[in-house]
Amino acid sequence: MQRRPGFPARIDWRQPGAPTAAPPVGARREVQPPTPHGVGLDSAAVRARMVQRLAASGISAGAVLQAMGMIERHRFVDTALANQAYEDTSLPIGLGQTISKPSVVARMIELLLGAECARGNGMGRVLEIGTGCGYQAAVLSRVSREVYTVERLRALHEKARDHLRPLRLANVHLILGDGMLGYPSGAPYAGIIAAAGGDSLPAAWCEQLAVGGRLVAPLAGADGQQMLLVVDKTAQGLKQGILEAVHFVPLKSGIA
Q1: Which of 31, 82, 110, 161 has minimal CB crowding within 10 Å?
Q2: Which residue range(s) make up the domain with 107?
Q3: Which residues are tagged catalytic?
């Protein structure tokens, strides 16, 4: 039996420097709203501007916008590229891989949340193919109950672990493995999202998708052009739709 991967079991979103001591007995407890802190890339205002641009571009799901504003993207890229972290651009993260544009991350997660099984009780368990630097997994952790994320490149798997460890996301599970095989131990999944594109969908993904679940992934056509594919699994079978053109790294098998 495979051991279920885990992660530190607590998340603390308090602002740095917030007092922790309890008030005197009988004292009136006042709850202060969170305020932006830090300067430069650490400022919540920088992320707020990015979120405003996402909303202006058509992202309307409040949960997605809130999650994008919560996760600090600059902490997931190399220091030399940090000043570009909140621009709508993909950035290299090493080993020929990239971190997707914020608009693409937001778009794909918003599509994922449109799954039939997520409309009433919210998004349940999600499988991410291609952890990369860990950024999208962190955003997914804010909109779903549990995230299983698979990375085939050992160096990126370790890098993502280093990036995510300070966030202490109890609902994120990092797996080093072949993403084309999915992760059957966590199935069925309410949502599956892929950060790499092949010329066909691996059968394992469709098998591990729950009825009522949704899969969002890039798919390459005969001309090599990648398009965004949305697959809904119903009791009658799979229903798919092709959306806009996208550009992702190629989907590969094996562990390296």
Answers
A1: 31
A2: 95-250
A3: 100
